[in-house]
Amino acid sequence: MTGKDEERSAFDWEARFADDDAPWERGQMHPAFLHWKETGAFDQIGSIVVPGCGRAPEVAGFAEMGLKTHAADLSETAINWQRKHLDECNLTAELFTGDILDWTPAEPVDAVYEQTFLCAIHPRLRETYEAALLRWLRPGGQVFALFMQKEERGGPPYGCPIGVMHTVFPENRWIWPEGELTAWPHPSLGGKAELGAILTRR
Length: 202
What we know:
- It contains seven helices and eight strands, in the order αααβαβαββαβαβββ.
- Strands 1, 2, 3, 4, 5, 6, 7 and 8 form an eight-stranded mixed beta sheet that branches.
- GO terms for molecular function: methyltransferase activity.
């Protein structure tokens, strides 16, 4: 990791992927991804960003749908896995290793798939991340978010209580869905729920 990467994360993500020590991985498509796909939530999207992609199979899933897919991670091992997986599937995506918070797309994108990035970064970086989302997304663009619910202090993963999330993603900049959010229990994290929400940039 570069000096800035080390400042942004005290966690050695490269070592964890290199040692295959990644208990947060589901090993298959997230059920929320499958639900959103089946219900047509991705149908009007042409481009998407997957920050902190790790070895998530959803990167290939988006590419298979024909979306212009951007994915990044601090771990070179994870990005190499993505590159190999995409090649095996005869798919393409724009991949890069590094701090995506410094990145700006050549043109605004339609969506961001937020599965494991927000809960992995320190809470002090949440405002920086929200500003990056505003920079990446076109007006009307969407964030497909999975907010980790966790009672214990510290992290990663860091808990993303919905009350706090409403502060991070205020309603003057984001349209929140109405009603209760769907809970998706994580099988390898003690059944902790991830709450699914599609936020729309104003």
